[in-house]
Amino acid sequence: MEKFVFFGGKGGVGKTTMASAYGVKSAAAGLDTLVVSTDPAHSTSDVFDQQFGDDPAAIEGRDRLWAMEIDPDEEVEHHLMETKRALGDQVSAAMVNEIDRQIEMAHQTPGAYEAALFDRFVDVMQSADGFDRVVFDTAPTGGTLRLLGLPEFLEGWIDRLTRKRERAIDLYEKAAVGNNEPRRVMDGDPILARLRERKAFFEYAGETLREEAAFFLVVTPDELSLRETRRAVEGLADRGLSVRGLAVNRLTPEPEPHEEGRGARYLRARVDTERDRLRELREGFDQPVVASVETRVEEVKGDLLDDVAAELDVGVGRPA
Length: 320
Ligand SMILES: Nc1ncnc2c1ncn2[C@@H]1O[C@H](COP(=O)(O)OP(=O)(O)OP(=O)(O)O)[C@@H](O)[C@H]1O
Ligand SMILES: [Mg+2]
What we know:
The chain has ten helices and eight strands. It has helices at residues 15-28, 43-48, 72-88, 93-106, 111-126, 141-177, 190-211, 223-238, 262-284, 303-311, and strands at residues 4-8, 33-37, 57-58, 65-69, 133-137, 213-219, 243-251, 289-294. Adenosine-5'-triphosphate binds at residues 9, 11-17, 39, 41, 43, 137, 140, 249-250, 293, 295-296, 299-300.
């Protein structure tokens, strides 16, 4: 299994639950494992009954298992400050206010949230040397996909900006020193250096996601979730990322044959419907179903988490 493992899927289907359960399983197999949560609801803290912050913290009562929670709003704020600082260093004092205004506007656009979160994501991947495995509970499908599209998008964008910037410097130097003087090298240019640094960052991200990451999708046995899963599989494939398996969650338990009454009839009918959905999943997708987890009476935490971990048919082998 790859070093980085992602559990994607629609909102509320059980991504945090599955990511945490897989983390438990991976740690139990002897791998130093970090579970990274990116949802604003702090659900990893609920699962493990412990507060987590922006740095990996050991989970009490669990060996080899760490968790951290990335707060998306804080990331946007941090990204904003960081960008202002990086650009502010490079322009005249008179320009700083104008640039700050522009950057603030840019951070209110819809993609800014994903961009900031993605940066942090990649940061975590880059600095995860101390861990054998890192498990992400990704944001709901649509946003995640846009997030994963950023490397390609920005690469092209940065290339174009770099060429423009090179031309600008070239023209400036022609004007300043005339055509006969030796050209100053452009390597010292701070804006270009910044652009190249960002490009390398996103190249690393794309490469790592394609070569060192495995993706699983969590799906509930209903039509909406199936459709969403289909779209997610295709969306990921468009990015050169293939989904390894489907984890089905929230299956309805079947009543015993002797049980009668309205409740039992309802459950039986519901189980039938879900069987059809499961069949669609098994026959209509190339990916194997790697888990069929029933709905529990209570939230999945504590011992229940170990039960769910045991139901996950996802390998935990050490990354190559
Ligand atoms: N099989 C299950 N049985 C009972 N409760 C479950 C089951 N799976 C998940 N839950 C509960 O449902 C809630 C949502 O699950 P979870 O937080 O894992 O979903 P999510 O996909 O991460 O949601 P979000 O999109 O909001 O991040 C949690 O309270 C969790 O404990
Ligand atoms: Mg979640």
